[in-house]
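Task card 7
Instruction: Convert sequence to structure tokens.
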Amino acid sequence: MKFSFINPGPNPELPIEDVKKMVGAAPPLGMLYIATYLRKNGIDISIIDEAPKGYSVKETVDWVKKENPDILGFSTCSANGKKAAFIAERVKKENPNVSIVFGNFFATFNAERILKKYPAVDFIVRGEGEHTSLELAQCLQKGGDLKKVLGINFRNNGEIVSTPDRPLIKDINSLPFPDRTLLDIDYHNITAGVVVAPKQFSNFVTSRGCVYKCRFCGCRRLARSLWRSRSVDNIMEEMHLLSSQGYKQFMFVDDNFTLNPKRVIKLCKRLREEKVDVEFFAEGRVDHCPPEMLQQMYRANCKMIYFGIENGTQKVLDYYDKEITPQQAMTAVGHARNVGIDVIVASFIVGAPHETRQEIKNTFKFAQKLQVDIPQFNVLATFPGTDIWEELKIKSLVDEEKHWETGVMVSDVCPDAVPAREVEKMIHEAYQSFFVRPDYILKQLAKFFKSSYRRNVLVNNIRRADAVADGIRMVT
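Output:
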């Protein structure tokens, strides 16, 4: 039995065969976890990350023909679901006998719609995929009863069958470490268009799930409001392994890395005590960032922290059900700056229903007041699996048939929201205003001369730009 995996590139805006190689921001860790678990249990596996490989659809289909799997799995989200379906259809024409499986967020919350629209897709794996994928593969291999496999959708005599949800994996320490050697790609984290991880890089998961209920996010539904943590011993074992393989930089991509500050402090102390020579980036909630934790993160070589601040107006934060205040954001950013963390990134979401133009502008001013190094301004979008999507469905503001595959900007469908194009223009102007301030430029220059990390990032990005320019000259 062979199970191959594809992480599709983004849904194309250009003709479907057009392609370019993209910088791989991070390995598809979810697929690697599943693939490694299957291999440990005797399944032959192969995997491809399409975009950073620079593969066209034809090249991807040719790769599948060469691998000749019994099962072909796709990791899907709103950004690549249509691309995955297109590849699946092409693959199925070449090999009608291959079983095609969709998984991840997009598949979980659109299972029946996908099976109804795309005959090439045979199965949907909902939620966590390790145990379900293994049972599905074993069931197909032995000709077993598919209705006994928890957490899947499939067709049976023209009807779509949905088996009961599979319980979440309680002991995530039991999962094998994802084998990053399965992908021969040089990954680098990108922030604000800049490669901020020029050394050997990977993302890293220390916990799964989310206990919060932010209305723009689907993590709560996917994780059923549960948070499960790996032990610090288990994390350190993987850290030592990756360090021995040459990895120097990591991004902790947990939904709630800082949920338990004591755990983070313990991990950071272990990194220092055991002299693991790595730099890391992390995300954090502003209501879970005590100074002691941030101090220990800094001492353990945390170079960048991402705060999901989302908005500068309490009314909008309450609409998002974010459960934070602007003052907590001010406090957390101040603590991170005071302990010396090199780069502070803050994400913001504007364009909510009832959010006025002045309130949007106030959020941009708030970003300046916070004195973060990099703001990330986003227009509020919604998609199946989020509470805002459900709200707009009830109000008949979202056209499910039109938008279920890609999601939609809330400003495009809510009559009381500032129009999306106007919001995008305001964001463009906000970036210009943010980065041209004399005091901001002077502070960034001062940080640059003090920070070997920032200098290393600059040098490597210049080299990368020169390499790209040389490649263009060779082609032309």
